[in-house]
Amino acid sequence: MKLLLVSVLLCAVMVLTPAAFLTDKVGSSGAGDLIPTGISYQVRMLSRCPRGWTRFRRRCFVYIPRAMSWAHAERNCLSMGAHLASVHRSSEYRLIQKLTRPHGFRTTWIGGTNASGKHVWLWSDGSRFHYTHWCPGEPNNGLGNQHCLQINYSGSKCWDDVQCDSHRPSICARKISRHRG
């Protein structure tokens, strides 16, 4: 059921977002310029990380400095064969923090959303949502429309739910295959 819900959510993202972007030399220039590109929504697994991405265990992560809505950020990640990052352990969260450090720990999108219901949080990649780092009192669904997850909120750099149409930089993640290819 959760996989179906995530699939429906991703289809809605693709339909409602007019354009996607692909990073050009991500991480090499530091500027993170984005250029329009064709889109392939099939997530292909790699045997190693693309240039400019950071490997951690069986995944590659990249910081996207361009501020965009959560849906645009997810679509941008999809255009690179990735999703907004899911976080499954504190060591992954520390890595993501390292990626945001050079950018002043700006509030940043990762792949959490509760668009399916008030208290049900899901990752856009379909993985289990079990590790959390919520700020005290969060998620609170302030004003009844905070359905997307931002990190680096407040001095504690914890998680916060916020309106999905807010513009933030983002972290994308993609899987690495177990086989050499």
Chain-averaged pLDDT: 81
CATH homology-level superfamily: Mannose-Binding Protein A, subunit A
Q: From the coordinates shown, what is the CATH architecture?
A: Roll
- Estimated structural class: alpha+beta
Q: In percent, how helical is the residue content?
A: 10-25%
Unreliable runs, pLDDT <50, ≥5 residues? 8-43
Strand order of the largest sheet: 3-4-10-5
How many domains in all? 1
**CATH class wording:** Alpha Beta
How many helical stretches? 3
What is the count of β-strands?
Answer: 10
Query: Could you say what the CATH topology is called?
Result: Mannose-Binding Protein A, Chain A
Q: Could you tell me how far the N terminus lies from the C terminus, measured between alpha carbons in angstroms?
A: 33 Å
Strand content: 25-35%
Q: What's the shape?
A: globular
Pfam family, one: Lectin_C
Signal peptide: 1-19
Domain C-type lectin: 56-173
Keywords: Disulfide bond, Signal
Describe the structure.
This protein has 181 residues and is of the alpha+beta class. The chain has a single domain, classed as Mannose-Binding Protein A, Chain A. The chain contains three helices and ten strands; from the N terminus they run αββββαβαβββββ. The strands form three sheets. Strands 3-4-10-5 form a four-stranded antiparallel beta sheet, with helices on both faces. Strands 7-6-8-9 form a four-stranded antiparallel beta sheet, covered by helices on one side. Helix 1 crosses helix 2 (70-79). The model is unreliable at 8-43 (pLDDT under 50).
